[in-house]
Amino acid sequence: MDFNTILQILDSTLRLTPPLLLACLAGLYSERAGVFDIGLEGKMLVAAFFAGAVAAVSGYAWVGLAAAIAASTVMALLHGFASITLRGNQLISGVAINFLAAGGTALIGLNWFRQGTQTPQLNGSARFSEITLPFADSIHSIPYLGPIYADLLSGHWIISYIAFLAVPFTWWLLFHTRFGLRLRAVGENPEAVDTAGISVIWMRYRAVIITGILCGIAGAYLSTCMNAGFVKNMTAGKGFIALAALIFAKWKPWSAMWACLLFGFLEAISIRFPNLEIPGIGTIPVQFMQALPYILTVVILAGFVGKAIPPKAGGEAYVKER
Amino acid sequence: MGKLPKWADYALIPFLNVLLAFFVSGLVVLFIGEDPIKAMGIMLKGSLGSPRAIGYTLYYATNFIFTGLAVAVAFHARLFNIGGEGQAGVAGLGVAFVCMYVDWPHWSLALPAAIIGAALFAGIWAAIPAYLQSKRGSHIVITTIMFNYIAAALLVYMLVNVIKDPGSMSPQTRAFVPGSVLPTAKEMLGWIGVDFPRSPINISFLLAIAACFGVWILIWKSRLGYEIRAFGHSESAAGYAGISGFKITMIAMTISGSLAGLMAINTVMGEGKRLVLDPVEGAGFIGIAVALIGRSHPLGVFLAAILFGMLYQGGFDLSFDMPKVSREMILVIQALVILFTGALENLVRMPVTRLFLRFTKGAA
Fold first, then answer.
1. pLDDT at B55
2. What is the pLDDT of residue A308?
3. If you count DSSP H runs as helices and E runs as strands, how many of each does chain A have, helices first?
4. Which of A168, A268, A274, B247 is deepest in the core (most CB within 10 A)?
């Protein structure tokens, strides 16, 4: 395998990772605050649809992004209403949101654009364009470092950079601000937070809203960056891979980035080498590569490679003491 | 929360929840620009309007009874088995092995073998997450979700690389011999001289009814069922009573998985007569809605499964007569039912409970 092939696979990894990473961080906020969210997939799908649809109608990718964030946040608030206010089962609510998204986007898409269940092809300003980082052209000729900078790091969409910048931001917000401390506290010990005079309910709602916003950006990436429009069920399990990455990363932002990069890398490999030959083992079927993120999650979750312990109050609604 | 009479808890609240879900579904149809009342008429006619339509409705309902019972049994042990989809898919492999490698002379021999094959494969597929939950502490919901994806990949691999019919272009097994194809309702009713049109409903429907009865005996009339319910009610209390949590988790999940697996009998042996890609088609997930409406009671599951069978079959006619309301409407209705009967249950329960309290106070 030569340098160029490696570079191409890594570049492909960086293109496949952002939606996973954004959704993974989205789940991180919600679950750290004690609200389990298996509806990342659904929120992302709704966002992808509205980004594609509104970008097509308005002609601007940014307007599409705003619509995606709004739609995803509405879904997140529905989840919040069910699980925080009504103290319903958070897992069931997540399942419902996934189906609502899968059915709703196809149904609305069919009646809005009448092009099957797709949105119109996006072009020009309706799609995000790739950004060339400064000096990318001038240092391209430097051996190794030049192509790494110009071909690998440069030339991605704005959302890709946002996704990776969201990692240090999340780390700072969760572990170095008062807001972050409180957010983590409502996920571990809500009684203590309540005793300190802080509203557990409002804190959790804020976490869920952040989840909605991040899922919205993730969805917009799918339909306005990576692809030129929305296709039915285009998330294709990415929300669950993000969830897997979140557990894999033990609910930590930096680890989340590495986990998403790993899963993105696996996807890049399986696209590039559908039937991977490993000397001494034989051909690895493409289905195994596709299932690998899920298998790894099961292994991690079972504690065979370090233990993944979820936030203590996760999944349980808070009932104020009288 | 105050006490509700049993009939309100088991019938009134699910009824109001489903009503609410259908009302919102009606609004969705209205929003699309169609008449919801007319849509309902089309669906009713499409699902119950002729013996053939009823045959199709009950065929789908058979799948949902099995997957609904699967979710319900796990619910009694307070386990959320979201993996019915994967379990049923793997069971499809089990059924295919039984029917492919043995040339059965008669379906009455093939059926018990296929039941064992389906239950064994699906049971093991559900037992692994159960083991991981009780021994390794991994959350069963996450593990079963992951197992759905792993099962899907496994199924594709097997069908493409291992058990594919060499003579066929698409990834599917060869057709089963006639001796391992289940009798349809047309044939069975023909034995007693009743004329019934051709439809995919087959003997599996009777198997599903038997499974309902079996689950009822298991949960409410057996010692094991008592232990399952005790464990579901309070893990620690069950522990003090000498009930092993590990044992109950394993058994409940294995039974749950096996039940989900039995739907493969209906689709693979009854309808498809060969294993194709995605033999489950979302029925595993519909089981969640069915168990929620049915309040995890076999009778409730049966009725809810018929309701979803009607939706499924009626949905075909609806998408023909009203092209604007596509098949995805079923998915939306399913989501709303899960939302209102599961996650937003308290939206109805809280006011109803308050109302009952006022009445009982007034009477006292």
1. 92
2. 67
3. 12, 2
4. A268
A172 shares contact with chain B (CB less than 8 Å): no
The count of structural domains within chain A is: 1
Nearest-angstrom CA–CA distance, A267 and B301:
40
pLDDT in tens, B342-363: 888 888 888 888 888 888 776 6
A61 in Cβ contact with A236 (< 8 Å): no
Q: Above 50 in pLDDT, residue B225? A: yes
The per-residue pLDDT for B139 is 83
For the residues B204-218, what does the mean pLDDT come to?
Answer: 94
Residue among B171, B128, B175, B178 nearest B148 (CA): B128
Quote the CA–CA distance of A192 and B137 in Å, as a whole number. Answer: 26
Report if residue A265 sits inside a domain.
Answer: yes
**CB neighbour list of residue B41: distance below 8 Å, 6 or more residues apart:** none
CA B281-B65-B155 angle, to 5 degrees, is: 30
Domain extent at residue A93? 3-301
Question: How far apart (Å, rounded) are the C-alpha atoms in residues A96 and A79?
Answer: 9
Residue of A nearest to B349 (CA): A86
Task: Report the C-alpha gap between B71 and B54 in whole angstroms.
Answer: 25
Give yes or no for a contact between A147 and A140, defined as CB atoms under 8 angstroms apart: yes
Tokens 């999944």 belong to residue: A315
Please report, for chain B, the start and end positions of each structural domain, with discontinuous segments joined by +. Answer: 63-186+194-307
Residues of chain A with pLDDT under 70: 1, 304-308, 321-322
Residue B363 pLDDT: 60
Task: Give me the pLDDT at residue B7, please.
Answer: 83
In terms of DSSP H, where are the helices of chain B? Answer: 6-7, 13-32, 36-48, 51-76, 84-101, 107-136, 140-157, 185-191, 204-221, 223-233, 235-240, 245-264, 283-293, 298-321, 328-338, 345-363
Inter-chain touch A88–B342, beta carbons under 8 Å: yes
Residue of B nearest to A288 (CA): B153
Distance CA A151, CA A136 (A): 8
Q: What is the mean pLDDT of residues B68-90?
A: 93
Q: Do the Cβ atoms of B146 and A100 come within 8 Å?
A: no
What pLDDT, on the 0 to 100 scale, is given for residue A53?
92
Q: What is the DSSP string of A22-42?
A: HHHHHHHHHHHTT-----HHH
Is A33 domain-assigned?
yes
Predicted confidence at residue A72, as pLDDT, reads 96
Q: What number is the ipTM of this complex? A: 0.87
* Three-point CA angle B64, B65, B68, nearest 5°: 75
Phi, psi of A251 (to 5 degrees): 60, 35
Please give the Cα distance from A219 to A50 (Å, whole number): 9
B78 touches A at CB < 8 Å: no
Closest chain B residue by Cα to residue A233: B328
CA distance A133 to chain B (A): 38
Examine the pLDDT at B284 and tell me if it is beyond 90. Answer: no
- For A181, the token pair is 């401390």
C-alpha distance from B324 to closest chain A C-alpha (Å):
6
- Tell me the average pLDDT across B333-342: 88
d(CA A289, CA A27): 24
Q: What is the CATH number of the domain that holds A74?
A: 1.10.3470
Residue of B3 and A271 predicted with greater confidence: A271
Q: What pLDDT, on the 0 to 100 scale, is given for residue A282?
A: 77
A298 interfaces chain B, CB cutoff of 8 Å: yes
Beta carbons of B137 and A303 less than 8 Å apart: yes
Is the pLDDT confidence value at B1 over 50?
Answer: no
